[in-house]
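new request in #modeling-help
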Amino acid sequence: MGNDTTTAQIDRFLHDLERALADRPETERAEIVGGVREHIDAALRGRNASADEVETVLRSLGDPLEIAAAAETERGHPMPGSAAPSSPRPRLTAWWVPSIVLPLTAFCGFGLFLVIPVVPLLIGLTIFWNSSLWKPLEKVVGTVAMTVPSALLIIGSLVAFGAPEVCSQSGMVGDPSSVTETCTGGIPDWLGTLNLAGMLTVLGAGVVVMIVLIARGTRRSNELDR
Amino acid sequence: MVPSEGQILTNLRRGALEYCVLATLRRGPHYGLDIVRALHAGVLLGSEGTLYPLLSRLRKSGLVSTVWEESPSGPPRRYYTLTQDGTRALSAFEAAWSPFRQAVDTALAGG
């Protein structure tokens, strides 16, 4: 088959095809280019083909870019019952679930004691629980991490307001030095400090848990994109 | 926008072409060019070269397998053969195709 001109024509075509398939995995690229090369060999078999004949064979093969586009289309095009099926993408696994919905939900959860974002929090939690990006245990831990710090803050405030400090003064009229103040109720200062430290620790732990879950969700979503 | 005949063909091929390839292989192992010739390029197949990405996927899915055979002229060539899974997939397509084709024909004729 062929002289130098036709060999160069074929080589250029195969080279263009290799380049067009640059994004495909090596084995797939080699398989497609090999198939096309054998196709050309078979079509020109044993003949000393003219440049026109080679041109006809190459033209019916189509543009290398078209072949590469077909390879791109074949990707993620599973066949039912095949040995290597790739399932449809699980629900709620797009990039925006871990990178937008979950941070917003966590924000609403941590801000819950301000009593503003209840509805967005519930929407966010619904998406979080229906997404396939996290395991059930992670969903439980995440929900606790997002809501418990606020719940504790609410309970803490109720305790503080529920036991207000009551102070009264007694002493002799006209003698300021004799006035003594007695206070009942309320919570001691050390308990208040401990309370605050505990809250911040729980809140901090909640934030750390959420950062881990957001990172895991983002990584899993990216893996599905490949 | 009204889809062109070419676009409609592209869409129709998407569901049917791979089974036509499998049906060709039911008659025995073929190499790529044989399959192209059996498929009446132009209707079932757009550009002949687009068969090879399809064959690559069918092999990866386990519906066809390849064997190398010596060629009388030149280097060995890969022959494509139907696997058991491929045979099963083809039967499933055939079972679905006849009622599908009839329903489409009836709908088009009935208007």
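bot summary: Helices of chain A lie at 4-20, 26-43, 51-61, 64-74, 96-110, 118-130, 136-162, 189-225.
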